[in-house]
Amino acid sequence: MIGLVGTAGCKPKSVPADPLAAATDGGPASLTSAAPAAAAPAPAPASAPTELKMAPLSFAPIAKRADPSVVTIYTSGEEEGRGVFARRRGSHTQKGLGTGFIVDKEGVIITNNHVIEGADEITVLLSDEHRYPAKVTGRDPRTDIAVVKIDGAKDLTAIPLGDSDALEVGDWVVAIGNPFGLSHTVSAGIVSAKGRGGNDVRLDSSGYYNFLQTDASINPGNSGGPLLNLKGEVVGMNTAIRGDGAQGIGFAIPINMVKQLMPMLLKDGHFTRSALGVIIRDARDLTPEEHKQLKVAGEKGAVIQQIEPGGPADKAKIEVGDVIVGFEGQAIDRGSLLQWLASTAGVGKTVTVRVLRGGKPVDLSVTLGQLKEPKEAKPRPQLRPRLPQGQDDEDDAR
Predict the structure, then answer these.
(1) Does domain 274-370 have CATH number 2.30.110.10?
(2) Catalytic-labelled residue, pool 192, 206, 223, 343
(3) Sequence ranges of the domains in the chain
(4) Catalytic: 25?
(5) Candidate list 69, 140, 144, 200, residue with the active-site label
(6) Which of 33, 265, 366, 390 has its CA 20 to 30 A from that of 353?
(7) Is 192 assigned a catalytic role?
């Protein structure tokens, strides 16, 4: 498969550092000069005080409003035995546990793909302790997003969805989930960073990642649960943790990614991606010699390494060594942004791509093709606990 590969995700919004005000020294006027003393320079105006976004005295109102929309998801499915745990080289029932949140009063629930992947049976436990069977409506392994639906429940409480692009590093956030089966656990923290990719979380490189990093406590079982802002809106879906014993480092999918994919997942059950038909590399990863050879002055853009013969880029006369710096008028600072924009623009759409060729900008029109998906993309985040064999689900939910 030749598509857009490399680091993945959307464009992170960088926060510029505050400029340092230059100090001035207006020394005393001379007392020995016969000429009138010069007026001392006016002091530099004081910089405006930094506006602080204070945390509430209590996060209880946020948790109370969101709690009816947060659900526990139980799964079970046949899994082949492996190694010393194999049961006569056959299969056995494997149980899993995760979280989800209701986005429609008719029973539409968002969760992670890895929570429901491979499940033969899915059971949703509401906050009022009612249980309902659920079925997968749509899923996208590459972003680890899934939609499930329960039947028989009416007038459920849907949780409002916010704007993850409006988040800033340092903003307060609240996580709700079922860590280790401890249902409806609430934790709070801040947005620690934005734009974390698969290499940061150590996931499958074929996925599309643009994680929010948070120090709000996230553990196995939180997977698929909401990350809320101080308005009680979902700004992320808790998805992954570092598997090397790191503490206070959790990752959530920005809710804007979920909102962009959800309509197609509900309609078609999957997300069909468009593609340029190239393999890219971030300009920031070039060696000094490669920068000189390609006449790339900065570290922004995506360098074309390979082109699919007869593919969209090939037909548009894009060349190996070109550096893509713009897509439909949006500046490209890293390959992950190009990957996301090209994959979500739409199959058959003609777009304008700006490249630097020999240091000179060139605009090219490209009609996007369809991305060839692998048989199965498995991000496998470290957030799905397994229930011990023979343990009752209800015991784990209390």
Answers:
(1) no
(2) 223
(3) 64-156+388-397, 160-268, 274-370
(4) no
(5) 144
(6) 265
(7) no
